[in-house]
Design brief:
- Among the domains are: 163 residues, Neurolysin, domain 3 (Orthogonal Bundle); 65 residues, no CATH class; 184 residues, Neurolysin, domain 3 (Orthogonal Bundle), CATH 1.10.1370.40.
- It is built from 25 helices and 7 strands.
- The longest helix has 31 residues.
- The protein is globular.
Length: 679
């Protein structure tokens, strides 16, 4: 019998039949898929014909389809819906898959064939996409250690396997401690400031956790917690903030600090083996940024402006209260300032942002207007969890182009944050169309109640859908160049562009209806929301920049420079970069910085702000071209969204706006340009 993980699905676009798959099926499926892939690779390596692009590079690209299928299914489960067995499988796979990839990348027979083609690439009459694929395959082999001697390769294998284990463990520890650190509030009076829906959700969370009484405030992944911005009582804010900022650094079973030091040391040693000064140089060599120095220059310029803006912001907030503003109070008083300076109550905005209305009449509407996409619910299809909803996606010509899965509600089995994932990659050569997933962590409402979005949640919904559109509109030949498979510091660009439509007047007017009365959003509330969203707080910019600086500080260490104390290194790195004091901690402290120690953003957390330079310019381009119009969407899709990594992304962007991007629009958007005083 065919393993259900590997069985060819008869469902639309190859959607896995999740109902037929048990956790016990995964390891046997991977064992079978890994063996099959090695057999395919062996045939390529021993081919007696001279190396050609087709029989070597393309053949490698198209091999391992069973492995891709199994990975697409399993790794889409372990993030949003894990359990102890899946965690254990993930831990085993982390080393199995790393060893497997190294075996292929370090195969001297394959490397000889790839290197021969790379040296002759100018004479091979390749398309741009094929040239990029060949160059990437060559670099991947070199960066995996294919050019090292036997001793060097053996050490690289050990490093890679150990890193795979450590990073997987890091993510699991964060999820465990984030769940364990939730704050139980005994008296409902202490929840003053939270909405009725938030209080009901906190009671439900407490009941789910086994508490007969009380309310449980669950933690979000970043340092700043949305509850802290609303809770009126300082001591409750302090409890929640303290639980957040001290995660994974309390000397208990969830402590990640020893894990961090080993990860950093191994990454530095790997870079040294390959001839790089440090891990940051190793990573950024594959990105659009010229190098760590260029990234540091951008961060320094932004930090200087942000800290000045922060001084102005704190002065304003201090005038609102006689109390001393501490780290647990800052976002509370920012919210208070917004309420005080708004002509209308901004808290009412969520009443006009019901999840289904925003999805259907906002997110999907904008995608239809820009790209001609149409989303049809498929309740007959089953996702990997009962909360997952599925839509079939139709293109401008009416043909079905893929599936979109939405997994929006938080649960203890889901890691924090929000993300997009592909279960199936688009490829014309393989005749596959994309299956794309968006994952958020919204609070699930009680039966019969509505899920109302805050401004931040609304932005996140549009942001993640920008990634989804990037995947859905992909039109490339090779799966490894599909959709979001672009340099890390470019991948956030399309998603950040999509945020601009959340409050665009044409889109807002289409979805913003009161969830009870159906009345359209009042003009003054829409204007106030737009003004609020267009004013980035200095706090938000500073906490992001501090995290980006911290990431590079860890990853610019040489192999002989690894510290012994995580907290002391963090304090010193932040202080040297100008972040003095603890009033605004980094968005993620080292101990729970999953992006860089558990995810794919090591030495790359800067990519959000690097991409935002392009995004701010592109927003201005869209507005100059008429805003929400099909022709502009078509040009953006043709130049960027459909091309994935088959073209140079920066060249594509320059072609779209007609020049290189400049930093000015970003500085203005984030309020980092001081306005002259009125006469």
């Amino acid at each position: 019998m065919v393993n259900p993980v590997l069985a060819q699905s008869s469902l639309p676009h190859g959607l896995p039949d999740f109902t037929s798959i048990a956790d016990d099926d995964f390891l046997p499926a991977f064992d079978e898929a890994l063996a099959a892939h090695l057999t395919e690779v062996e045939a390529i390596a021993t081919d007696t014909d001279p190396a050609t692009f087709a029989n070597t590079v393309e053949a490698l690209e198209l091999s391992g389809r069973d492995l891709a299928r199994a990975s697409g299914i399993f790794f889409n489960l372990v993030g949003p819906d894990t359990n102890p067995q899946r965690n254990e499988i993930s831990q085993q796979l982390s080393t199995l898959l790393t060893d497997h990839a190294n075996t292929i990348a370090m195969d001297k027979r394959l490397f000889t064939r790839i290197a021969d083609l790379y040296e002759r690439r100018a004479d091979l009459d390749l398309t741009e996409a094929q040239e990029r694929l060949l160059a990437k395959r060559y670099r991947e082999s070199v960066r995996a250690g294919a050019g090292l001697d036997d001793a060097g390769q053996a050490e690289m294998r050990q490093i890679s396997s150990r890193l795979a284990y450590l990073t997987t463990t890091f993510s699991q520890l964060i999820l465990d401690d984030t769940n364990a650190s939730a704050v139980l509030v005994d008296d409902a009076v202490d929840l003053d400031g939270l909405s009725a829906g938030e209080i009901a959700a906190a009671r439900r969370a407490a009941a789910d956790a086994g508490h007969d009484t009380g309310h449980l405030i669950t933690l979000e992944l970043p340092t700043s917690q949305s509850a802290v911005a609303s809770l009126a009582k300082h001591d409750v804010r302090q409890r929640v903030f303290g639980a957040s900022v001290n995660r994974c650094a309390r000397g208990n079973e969830f402590d990640t600090r020893a894990n961090i030091l080993e990860i950093v040391a191994l990454r530095a040693r790997r870079a040294e083996l390959l001839g790089y000064a440090n891990h940051a140089e190793y990573v950024i060599a594959e990105e659009t940024a010229p190098g760590p120095s260029a990234v540091l220059d951008l961060l320094r310029e932004l930090t200087e402006s942000a800290l000045r803006a922060g001084d102005r912001e704190l002065t304003r907030l201090t005038a609102l209260t006689d109390e001393e503003i501490g780290p647990a109070d800052y976002t509370y008083w920012l919210a208070a300032e917004k309420r005080a300076t708004s002509a209308v109550p901004l808290g009412d905005f969520a009443d006009y942002c019901e999840l289904d209305a925003v999805l259907n009449d906002g997110v999907f509407y904008a995608a239809n207007q820009l790209y001609g996409l149409r989303f049809t619910p498929r309740p007959d299809l089953t996702g990997y969890h009962p909360d997952v909803r599925i839509w079939e996606v139709f293109g401008e010509n009416g043909s079905s182009i893929g599936l979109f899965l939405g997994d929006y509600f938080a649960r203890p089995s889901k890691r924090g944050g929000a993300w997009m994932n592909n279960i199936v990659d688009q490829s014309t050569v393989l005749a596959t169309q994309p299956i794309v997933v968006n994952v958020l962590n919204l609070t699930k409402p009680d039966d019969g109640a509505h899920c109302l979005l805050t401004m931040d949640q609304l932005t996140t919904l549009f942001h993640e859908f920008g990634h989804a559109v990037h995947g859905l509109l992909s039109a490339v030949d090779y799966p490894s160049q599909s959709g979001t498979s672009v340099p890390r510091d470019f991948v956030e660009f399309p998603s950040q562009v999509n945020e601009m439509w959340a409050l665009h007047p044409d889109v807002l007017a289409h979805y913003a209806r009161h969830h009870e009365t159906g009345a359209p959003i009042p003009a003054e509330l829409a204007e106030a929301a737009h003004a609020s969203a267009n004013t980035e707080t200095a706090h938000g910019t500073i906490e992001y920049l501090a995290a980006a600086v911290l990431d590079l500080a860890w990853h610019r260490l040489g192999a002989d420079e690894i510290p012994s104390d995580v907290n002391e290194f963090e304090r010193t790195a932040l202080r040297e970069a100008g972040f003095v004091g603890d009033l605004i901690p980094p968005r993620y402290r080292s101990a729970y910085f999953n992006h860089i120690f558990g995810g794919g953003y090591s030495a790359g957390y800067y990519s959000y702000i690097w991409s935002e330079v392009l995004d701010a310019e592109t927003e201005q381009w869209f507005l100059a071209e008429g805003g929400l119009v099909r022709e502009s969407g078509r040009r953006f899709a043709e130049s960027t969204l459909s091309r994935g990594d088959s073209v140079d992304p920066l060249v594509a962007h320059e072609g779209l706006i007609g020049r290189k991007a400049e930093i000015g629009p970003l500085l203005r958007r984030r309020g980092l340009v001081e306005q002259p005083a009125e006469a």
